[in-house]
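User: We ran a pulldown and think these components assemble together. Before we commit to crystallization trials, I'd like a predicted model of the whole complex to look at. Sequences follow.
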Amino acid sequence: MKVGLDEVEHVSRLARIRLKEQEISKFSKELSSILEYMELLDELETRDVSPTVHTLSITNALRADSNRPSVSQKEALLNAPSESNGMFSVPKVIE
Amino acid sequence: MLDIARRYRRDALSPVDHVRNAIQRAHDDELNVFITIDDEGALLSAEKAQERIRNREENPLLGIPIGVKDNICTKGLRTTCASNMLSNFVPPYDAFVVEMLKKNGAVILGKTNMDEFAMGSTTATSNIGPSRNPWDTEKTPGGSSGGSAAAVAAGLCAVALGSDTGGSIRQPASFCGVTGLKPTYGSVSRFGLVAFASSLDQIGPIARTALDVAVLYDAIKGYDPKDSTSVNMDYRPIALDELDVKGLRIGVPPVFFGEGLDPEVEKAVREGVSVFKELGADIVEVELPHIRYGVAVYYIVATAEASSNLARYDGVRYGWRDKESKDLFEMYVNSRSKGFNDEVKRRIMLGTYVLSAGYYDQYYEKASRVRTLIIYDFREAFKACDIIMGPTTPTPPFGIYDMLDDPLSLYLLDIYTVPANLAGLPALSIPCGFTSSGLPVGMQLMAPAFREDLLLGAGMTFQAHTRFHEERP
Amino acid sequence: MDYDVVIGLEVHIQLLTDTKIFCGCSTRFGDAPNTNVCPVCLGMPGVLPVLNEKVVDFGIKLGLATNSTISEKNIFARKNYFYPDLPKGYQITQYDYPLCQKGFLDIDVDGRTKRIGITRIHMEEDAGKLIHDERQDFSYVDFNRSGVPLLEIVSEPDMSSTSDAVAYLKELRQLVMYLGICDGNMEQGSFRCDANISVKPKGASDYGIRTELKNMNSFRNVQNALEYEISRHVNLLEEGKQVEQETRLWDANAGLTRTMRTKEESHDYRYFPEPDLIPLVVDAAWVERIRKTLPELPREKRYRFVKDYGIPMYDAEVLTQQRDIADYFEACLKFIDAPKDVSNWIMTEVLRVLKEESIDIAEFNITPKMLSDMITLIKKGVISGKIAKGVFEDMHRTGKDPSLIVKEKGLLQIMDEGVLKDKAKAILDAHPKEVKSYKDGKKQLLGFFIGQLMKETKGRANPKLANKVIKGLLEG
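Assistant: Here's a predicted model for the assembly, 1044 residues in total across the polymer chains.
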């Protein structure tokens, strides 16, 4: 299997996704077959080709250092699952 | 849409009545095309539009009911991306295109169904369940803008907005027998579009005719300083006229007619191409040697960008949070695991993998280089032709739940549509026939960057000489 | 065994722009939580970043001031990780194509000049602020700081001692303040420092394992933390143990470094080019525009003061601590050619007042002309140095010109020997016992008599003359 169970667990951890037992093996199979398909790209010689990040040829999208209105504290917290004293609260972060 | 606009102006129809009617039909709809119907907002907009029409304002979008895909932010109106993660998210701002719609007096009827976070080709991954194809309710309307395409096909709204990352406007348009445009990357602002793959996403119009698509496209395109990838140039309105196709060079790539293409689809598309030939266009064969790598490139680049774009859904500032979690790590994994469906998780995992240490060069970097080769292919091809034509998708609409357990086979069906996203080029899907079982078939037209005029003009020409777009389910 | 120390420093500075790097929210510090935020810096669905051009201006400025090469092609990248203060789940930063490279900063340590290389300077965004509540099981997030522009300055591992490191930091901090791009406030977090440190046996060719140190928010803490860490490394090596490659936090209270609780996963940031931002091209014209705005840099100024004004380096260092104080000094010299005197007055009296009243020199009501005029009065002998101190206080209190104060209070120095002699005679006559003691050998009583004369003349007697007269009368 191209992507083993350990690797699936590692990747899911990086992505903050928890998978159940069966899901891990299912994902392992699926990701493996997909990545095997991706090997198609190895057929191509690309050493002299530069990567494309943008299909546009424009550069320098800049804005002036001037103030635009912010939202109110209330609006900022409108969709907050949990808040307190104007701040978003989260379960304790252990440093 | 233009018909309705005409009737409004002549006072043969009132926007408020028409919208009220549309709201009712939306509620009665059994195709499951709407996630949210905005009764109140729509009526209010209709009243305002009515006022503007009464004041002799001439704007084709005034009072027109429009469906907006639910990954486009609408201020004060729930925007869910068909995901449990955002089922109660109310954006505090409008997307640029929504601002344009409102400015032009369009009436947002509601938010249309889609695949969760735009990842899919069927709408079956939606958290409210799949939409149904109006032509055959056992069949998929396509995805991820399936709700928008079905809504237009079923006449629930005159026009709709969708988004296209790898074919998500064109494929559903093809499956639902309507016209859909993926604009040139950078011509329609992405500000307010919930990002899937930043270098590929574009918002685009879906309507029954190329004419309506052109009008809607004109309304939403343009430079937006809030989007750094928005192109600041002179945007001319699309000529609302048939294109004279005499001498037009139409490129037909053999790779678009190779293995895996359904014979009925092939037949309809080839007949579509010959319509142009009969009107005087020259058909030339063009090569696109790297297109066959398109799906692999797409699923590496798109999932990589998506894995990063979806990291913000962590339950901290908005969205669903697992309140039972006792510590931060648990909160992250539980919220995300319960908030996202399998397809989304799959793509996030794939994207995370191809970016991770040790794999970046082999996958992401490599795919980005092959992407350049695909761009060169088009550059070469467009030296020999003006428009490239082919099928939009290899198969007719399939069963709603087909292939969901075989993701790779679904991915492979994107073969004709992903190249336009990878190269940032405009692409249009227009209805060009039906299968023997009465299911719509669409053909795809592609042009060089910012040449939507060629696509839409050719589309209008085609629709002046055929009646496929006039059929109703 | 002797050990070589290798230190590299990573400094993050918050820029003094009005707005954040990717949105138009204010960068103001100290406002109520989550009031300088918008959908962009909150990382809401559908939002996009747009680069603030002033951030680039400031980056170029620092690059030029550190002799760096300014990159023409600039690309932003995403650094992906999960943390509650990171709204998008990634930080927009620069990875492969940073704004500046291969610069340096010259520092003076132990009387020698040392050149510290600066590997790179790049632009990135700050995260929000996480506040912990000790009593509860919750932490709180304020996103006002999210999106504030930062420049990250990475040094070469060219420092070989704690004093090198502290000197480098001080020089860099002063530089960014001079350039007006950062306020250098370490306590508030606008100037932050992390260190990479390793030791190796003296003369060994291979570098030792290095550890990263965080949480040093003052020069003192940097010094103490580095010293502690150096000995920790040395002790481990002496015991034949290995140094573990890790990140450690300085605990100022306990006086030691501790391992940061290991994150659950290794740091795989999965950097890739930011697709929402197009490339930034910084052309020669832009660089020139910024070059024209460069002020004289602190080090240049220090050396120039010593050379042009003949003042000691110590004075030059104090005077050039802040650009506006150096400017004040030079403004005084437009009215009087007495650099050392002006320097003394500024170093002792002026700085004292500024500190006591917590004001900037811009708010100080004694103008360079007023101070210079006062010093001129001293040099002309119109008032004595001691009286001048009082005049100085009065100038500050009332804002009046020194000559006016001298006039109003009748503070003219007494230079008339005859007058002083008369007064001195009267004093000697009034203290016969002391006169006899003096003549018997108690020479220190001279001070007593001078003191009396000073008292009698309300301090206006010229000290030298007073001395001469009293001595003359006693000896004569």
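Chain B has a mean pLDDT of 96. That may be worth checking against your pulldown data before setting up trials.

User: Thanks, that helps.
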